[in-house]
Amino acid sequence: MKNAVKAGLHPSTSRGARRTFLTALLIALGSGGAVSNSASAQTLFTLPAPPFELPMVPSVSGNWTVMVGVGGEYKPDFEGANRSMFSPVPIFAIRRAGTTDQFRGPRDSASIALIDFGDLRAGPAAKFVSSRKASSYSELTGLGDVGTTVELGGFVEYYPVDWFRTRGELRQGIGGHHGAVADLSADFIVPIIQRLTLSAGPRFTWESTKATTPYFGIDAAQALATGQPAFDAKGGAHSYGLGAQVSYRIDPKWEVHAYVEYERLLGDAANSPLVTLRGSPNQTTVGIGASYSFDFKIR
Length: 299
Fold this sequence. Notes:
By secondary structure, the chain is of the alpha+beta class. The chain is about 20% helix and about 45% strand. The protein has 6 helices and 12 strands. It has helices at about 1-5, 10-45, 210-215, 220-225, 265-270, 275, and strands at about 60-75, 85-95, 110, 115, 120-130, 150-160, 165-175, 180-195, 195-205, 235-250, 255-265, 280-299. The longest helix is centred in the first third of the chain and has 35 residues, at about 10-45. The N and C termini lie far apart (about 80 Å).
């Protein structure tokens, strides 16, 4: 303060100068911040829009079409058997109402098309595999039972053109086996006359070791009980084949069909003593069925 007086400056004048300087500094900082905020805002508003929308989680609400039915199959007594028997088969599928009528192949598992773009469908899939009782067949004496299995997983099917469908399923076993099973199929779909359709195409199945061993492996105890050699069945390529189906649509709700499927076992499934000594690697299934479709709504 004394120095200010000596310099000829009055104290009040010094305080006023300081206030003027601080005011100018605050104005400058505020202007810079406003410019910065304006630039940031301008940058945010001028960013280009993304070229695609992020996929949404499929919603179960809305209208759905359910296909239910029942069929019968004359097929091998058990996988690898050389004798056949007749057994019932359930039919079940769900799709979005209003979407393209869904082709169903003989090997398709029960499924729900949660994702449906017309030519591309995907969703959960499930298959029921009945138990194998050793006491029911003389060929299985001493091999023990394999319990009922539920295979849960998903499917994807794609139509590159209207008359050709490809489908893949991947399922995990729970119960009698705990392995993984993958089914691949393709079908050429040809309208013969009005409401009558013929389809046919190749099949292929892959199974993990845990899915193969319960049905085709023979452990030391089972070898002693059966007189067959012990066999450590591994997974891998399981089978290939061909299938054909003819279907007739009676009206928009009712459909009937008949089909034949041929399957040739591969790898350790074909090399198991159960097949080479007591069964056959050639597996043929003949089936018929009828299905009914109806709509319902989930809010």
